[in-house]
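My current task is to audit a protein record that another person submitted. Alongside the sequence sits a line of tokens, each denoting a local backbone shape. Please read both lines and tell me whether the tokens look consistent with the sequence. Do not assume that whoever made the record got everything right. Thanks in advance; the entry in question is below.
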Amino acid sequence: MKKIKEGQNISAPVKNKSFFKTLLFSLLGLSVIITFLLTLFLTANYFRTSLSITTAFNRNLLSQTNYTITQMDDNAQRLTQALFGDKDIISFLNMKEHDSMIPILASRTLDKQLMTLPFVDSIYLYNASLDLFFSSKSGEQLHSGEFKDEQIAALVTDPDFADSYTGVPIPGSVSGVSHVAKTLSYLVFDSTKEENGLRNVIIINVNPSLLTDSMRTMNQFEDGMRMDFVIMDKNGCVISTALSPLLEQNSQLYEILYGQLLDHSRSSGIKGSFLTIGDTRYFQSATMGNKYQWYLMSLIPAGVIFRDILTSSLAGAGIMLGVFLIGSVICLSVARRLNSPIQAITHMIKGEPVENLPSDLEGTREFRLILNTYEDMKKQNLQFEQMKRETAYSIRQDCLNSLLTGNNTDSMERIASRLNGLNLSRLLTDTLCMAVLKIDSYDRFLSENNPKELWVLRFAIVNILEEIASGYFPCQVFSRDNDKFVVLILCEEDAVYRIFRNTVDKMLLDVQENVKRCMDISLSAAYSTFFKGVEHLPSMYHNMKDSLLLKMKYGHGCIISPYMVDEMDTGSFQFPTQKAEQLCQAIEGSKTEQSLELYLRITEQLFTYDYNEIISGSIHLAYTIYTDILQKFPGLKEEGTFLLREFLAALQDSEISGDIASHMETFIRAMCAGTEEARNSSSQQNNNQITQRVCQIIDREYSDPALCLSSIAEEIGLSPNYIGQIFKASQQKSVAQYILDLRMDTLAYYLENSTLPLSRILEKVGIEKNNYFYTQFKKHFGISLGDYRKKKKLTEKEEE
């Protein structure tokens, strides 16, 4: 028992914070919370019910207003149809010249209509042809520039407005959101345009108070009503109101209401919200469920709705106090009974002897089991902690490496579960940045170190990298592909990339300097932009490997940012043909220094391109040099091929521009040395060998009609011009002439020593029977083929 006490991490009991008091207060708190929640639920339910009833009542009243709007619109439409069907009205609208009688007749018609429609304030008639307005209220006939209702005159004389007008009534005499409209104007345009592009119009001006008057009548409201109403269009123009004197005196009422509406959704239906106007808090309901999507709003003082709710809440508080007192007595009794076994377990963990335990628990099987289980759990916990420390790094590295491969077939749920188990769940949610560091000149690193110690060196680099990087950012560090190390940086959501980039550069430089100082190992680094989601890790790692190839330009120990990647030329590098020819000529002349200088000029821009273009460009230049030199010095074919292969092999291991320049310099110096040696040695022997080789091919293939200088040069592997020059200098005739002479001599042999027909003989010597053959035969032998045969027969007779 003493052993348990020494190894435990359990704090000593605090006098004022015993388990008994904690349990007692917990039970008391639980009873209070349950009572409070129940009271709160009932209060909230009553609150919601009151709001629902109020909202339903408001819905009924506002729906009646919607009906009034519809009815007003229908009446206006019927009046319009009646006016357009009246001949006196039509006569005024179609009047082409001023006529004093026609307006009088139109005025009488309008008066008759207005007598039966008290909700109509006035009617305007507009003759587009004469640009003439007629008002039923004043009886005046005025042009648009003189008409008193300037708003209507401006709209009617705007052709674009007439084309776009949708029939929505226009509030009249409105200035901003703080004035109530005096009229609602329905504009009915004629379907045809006049010569001036305008249309005849009938304007019906309706009194907007009809909307709230009908509502007040149907719901039996008086001037001192407790419910206020406002009708407003989508632009904040107040169309009609039914307000109490208190609200009518508030100059900022309409601005407050319009601002409240803009903060809520504008979909149709009743909206309920609270707002404060002056010193009074109101419950506001609003709807747009009408034809013109006007806001219909009702305001009810919140005190009227919630008076009963406050009374109920106070009653609930009294009930909760009574429950608390009763619950305190019950909780005290329960806490004492539950604390007894817990106190006994506490004594056991503290190492007190078994005989000091409470008498009712002493020697029980359950407490003996708890004691043994506690000792076993402690031993297992120590073993588990040791195992976890030893395997944490390898498990974490395997998990992160599997995410980089892109071949992971696990579902996102399974991946998330694994990361959570390794405390790497932030990789799933945080913004990330990947940095990849690579050991420079890895082949030399392998050759200079014991293979059995390589993993120790990599582990040391990981430790240095993790220690330094964690001082700058929260991150995860692991090794990859033997020569690379990955840092996954967890970034803040609102991080500014420019500032972040400076910090990353400083961190990577710190790592490079420490690894170089402590281990004499050079590292190059590249890092990415921000990204989010572990599914992007494979593609991001691939991009970072490509970015590391840019050290071809920047050298070992560089830090490559995303902006440096964008600065690379991604086009195709074109070698300057003229300088390439000059380089080949310099190598032919064994001018080593001049050749190296020309190479540097040719490749001035090469290392501003990407890695693949640099490699392919270097291979192209080396092969160009190789083929050109072999054309002039065929004897260097074996040595040149060996040098080219050595250069290509070395090129694959090149990491920086200096490596390629060094390998190319070695290649150029060797080629210059080869050309110089070839010129200093006896060239006559090489020429004789070439001539002998050509003669052997001709003697073997002369029966083939396709035999020529080009086919011979292709077989030997030299240029036709070069072979032709050497052969003619040696044989004093061209290759073609040599072939022809051989064929003619062989033809003569067959003619003299065989009985084969001429066609068969020509086939055997590779000559076609045509006029060209007869011409060449006579030119070669000095006589024609017929004379040659006659001469042959005479010779045979003489011999007989």
Confidence is low (pLDDT under 50) at residues 1-15. The chain has four domains: 1-362, 389-566, 577-623+633-677, 685-799.
